[in-house]
Amino acid sequence: MFRICNSLWCLVVVWNCLQTAPNVCADDAAKRPVTPYGELYNKWKVEKEPLKRGSDGLRNLNRRYTHEFFELAKKHPDDDVWLDCLIWIGVEGQPGEDLDGMMTFVQKHAGQVKNRIQLQLFLPELIPIQSETLNPALSEIAEKHLDKGVRGVALYALAARTMQDAERQGSVEGCEAAKALLKRVIAEYPEVSSYRGTNLENAEPRLKHLDGPLALGKVAPEVQGKLLNGGEFQLSSLRGKVVVLVFSASWCGPCVKMHPIEKALIEKLPQSQFQFVEVNVDAPDDLTEVQKTMKEEGLAWDVVTDGPEGPLTVAWDVTAYPTFYVLDQQLRIRHHSTGFLGEKLGQWVEPILKEAGPKP
Q1: Which of 137, 208, 223, 254 would be 235's cystine partner, CB 3.0–4.6 Å?
Q2: pLDDT at 356
């Protein structure tokens, strides 16, 4: 499985293939059909051209066009233009305050989509999105949509999101609910597929994870390795402290964005009770630059070097960056999440610090 920072990148490829002529897979605006969606897409493409990827200018442009694409979607509830618009938002957009409205729109109009293959490919890409309205939308699609394939991927997406939410919140009960949904996916829709593979291929590893050594409440597996500064690291030596273990990389935007928050958390919490540890997956040739960046930014935490597809990354089932594990004083897994967490990380750690635990 690819180790990715943004799980939507494959959808770009699929989306382009669906939008262009048969046997052609190219992101060429001039070849797109002249539809209301195509016109808006081409307008965005022209404005985007001079802007650098990852720049504030491009983010601001995409934020503005997110609203325009959603407004266009709302004008076309009876044709597939709305789905094209929401796929663009999923790939390029900055949903912000429009997000809940978009998810409600999906719930209301998914049953009318003519291109059900495109909808089937789209729904699993909603798994990482943080929205309170999304699970009810997926639940309704899973129960009521006329197409079996759409029902199947919606149920899988709901199961995966239930698991994701439970691990983020540290809810063992939520994990049990996720297991029940995953078992239903395997029993009722094993052959249904998206670009990621069949439901059976996708659901079985998640079910195995929920019963495995990385499940909530389990004592974390040992982590041993070399530190960036040349020392040796052993996770079990930190028993008695609350530990944040993050799998990270210098090329990962959300990882870098977390640095100031992580630094502030370390400065705020007592070192005798809390430890922040990074498992870095950069290539060996890039580690000198990692050291330089840490020094320049004043990032003072342990960095265990693992490398791309390293043994720790594989053992801890890391498929996206950053991946966070929060461990209590007994080194039991209390929270697990991927992506940018913001201040949520501190909100998870601080209550655990107040719990009784073994002395270091």
Answers
A1: 223
A2: 65
Contact by Cβ (8 Å): 305, 287: yes
Reported as half-sphere exposure (CB side, CA atoms, 13 A), residue 351 has a value of 9
Domain boundaries, the chain: 7-211, 218-356
Residue with the two structure tokens 């498992």: 279
* Integer CA distances (angstroms), 282 to 8, 62, 290, in order: 21, 29, 8
Q: Which CATH superfamily, name and number, covers 218-356?
A: Glutaredoxin (3.40.30.10)
The residues, any chain, with a CB within 8 Å of residue 139's CB and separated by 6 or more, are: 154, 158
56-90 pLDDT tens trace: 888 899 999 999 999 999 999 888 888 888 888 87
Which residues, 6 or more positions from 120, have their beta carbon under 8 angstroms from its beta carbon?
A: 147, 149, 150, 153, 192, 194
pTM of the model: 0.77
Sign of the C-alpha dihedral computed for residues 349, 248, 258 and 168 taken in this order: negative
